[in-house]
Amino acid sequence: MITPLIFNLLLRATTPMRFRLNLSILLILATPMMARAGFSYQFINDGTEIEITGLGSTVGSAISIPSLIENKPVTSIADFAFFNERQITSATIPGTVKTIGASSFEHCSVLVDVFIGDGVELIENSAFRRCTELSSISIPDSVTSIGEFAFNQCASLSSVSLPANNTAIGQSAFRSCPGLTDIAIPDGTTSIGSRSFFDCKNLVTASIPGSVAIIGGSAFSACDKLISINVAPENQTYSDLDGVLFDSTFTTIIALPGGFSGDYTIPSSVDTIGEAAFTFCDNVTSIFIPFNTSITGANPFGSCDSLDTIVTEESHPSLRSIDGVLFDNTESTLIAFPGGRSGHYSIPQGVSTIAPRAFYISLDLESVSIPEGITSIQSHAFYRCQGLQTIFLPESLTSIDEWAFFRCDQVRTITFPAALAAIGENAFFLCDSLVSAEFSGDAPALGSDVFKDSADAFSVYYYESAVGFDLAPWQIYPSVILPSGISPFSAWALIQFNGTDHHENERSPAADPDNDGKDNLSEYGFGCDPTRPDHRQPLSASLGASGTSFDVSFPINERATDLTLKIQTSTTGADWTQSTSFVPQGSGLPPLRNGSEETASISVTDQYNGTFVVSERFQTSLPRLVVRVTADLR
Length: 634
Hints:
Layout lengths: L3 H11 L2 H14 L3 E3 L2 E6 L4 E6 L7 E3 L3 E2 L2 E6 L12 E4 L5 E2 L12 E4 L5 E2 L12 E3 L6 E2 L12 E3 L6 E2 L12 E3 L6 E2 L12 E4 L5 E2 L12 E4 L6 E4 L2 E4 L4 E4 L6 E4 L6 E2 L10 E6 L4 E2 L13 E4 L6 E4 L2 E4 L4 E4 L6 E4 L6 E2 L10 E5 L6 E2 L12 E3 L6 E2 L12 E4 L5 E2 L12 E4 L5 E2 L12 E5 L15 E4 L5 H9 L23 H6 L14 E4 L6 E4 L9 E8 L6 E6 L16 E10 L2 E8 L6 E9 L1
Parallel strand pairs: 3-6, 4-7, 6-8, 7-9, 8-10, 10-12, 11-13, 12-14, 14-16, 15-17, 16-18, 17-19, 22-24, 23-25, 24-26, 25-27, 30-32, 31-33, 32-34, 33-35, 34-36, 36-38, 37-39, 38-40, 39-41, 41-42
Antiparallel strand pairs: 1-2, 2-3, 5-6, 20-21, 21-22, 28-29, 29-30, 43-44, 45-46, 45-49, 47-48, 48-49
Helix pairs in contact: 1-2
């Protein structure tokens, strides 16, 4: 066998100089990567130490990394050394190893036991990420830093012993470890990264020592059973009150534990609500904001699945609560919608901006009416509103920011107004039911991946007079050009039935292809989806302030300008008298009032054939009054 050195000498004797140098370099680079004792490895630090790079020829499910190879200490496990190795069930790491590299054991999905020798100093990013069978781990006191995502998604991890000399827990280090029930962070730790224990569903308590000076955002969010975050009295940066995390002066509320249940009143000493302080608190039902408390960032109440009401103290200087929804004090910016509400919501007139994360993960919101005057829908505003089926965008809208409607995966069609000038990146990413996007005007500026992973049949619809849709950002999407003279109903039918197997005769005004009792004309007039039998726009009816009248209101398709909507009344449900008629010209319907002095109560009784029926009950023997709304093409 010719060793690399001898082979190099032979080459030097027979090869011209300009080639000798290149060959010599190639051989030197090739020599460190070897396989000895099964593992593949390479020399590091000028050949004085060994780094393990992979299994090599190692067989068996239990691996034990040697402390010496070729009489040199094994001091490192390389990045990705055992990535996605599915046969390893246990691993023993000697104390000579100083660094466990990034993603070195990531996705070792049958790895159950890991023995880390005293001497290891660094566990790098994602080192044991997605080791879903790893049940427990004892980290020696020699470890000083646990990297980002180091144990992320270790679903079976039920206990972990953190080292006494550790100073930093990286971002998302133990994120989504549902087996953890308690965590004691050792004194000496100075930093807990953002989302480090996020989504640890069974974590009950967490203890913060006096040494911790930094706790990143959402460090303990989405921990559904967490009842208390306890801070050592000697901590100079943080404190707790009844298990709720504050800064040391109790002027900033940082985190309400996810296991908190019921109504919560923010203490009057608090002047700032921290970012995501209440996010993912699924059992809080109402929140009271005192006079001196302000919100400096995006909605801190997102994804609170039971939250029904956000209330502010009267005459609050910067915030207003309208029917339990949070606005700024001018009532022009919608800041936070309670995530526990369901059905339909009509944003009040006068609002111009929907703030970042305003409807963040409102899972049961089905439809929303956005009034004229709103110009901006900001980032993440309707992020993961996965029950949302219908969106009416006003003609005044000029911008939709990044991630605004991410994963609204029940929305099938959407019409964009002519004034729209820009759509941010990923705005409709993963809206996987979205089959059509209709543009009323010219092409707006388009961010990256706006409609990525929409439905397979997705198409962009625009009118033949529009400009800009032939440019690069739009060419990745299939498109359909609508003739300028097409009627609003015909355009609606073409777009609504895109991606379906409904025949031409099922797209006529009188057809009812989803067999829900409402023909296409009714679905068109009231903004319903003609392909979904369970899709119905909600009706609201309420007594007037005097108690002697009632209001009837419902969402309508404001772009159905070729329709006449007729309001009729009856006392029998059979003989109808026309009360009024109108052409849709904006979102909503002006209230219909009945001036009876004997009104006692109102109840919604039925919906059929596109007709909304409201029963008004009287205290006398007078028959009930029934109201219906019908649609006719003009």
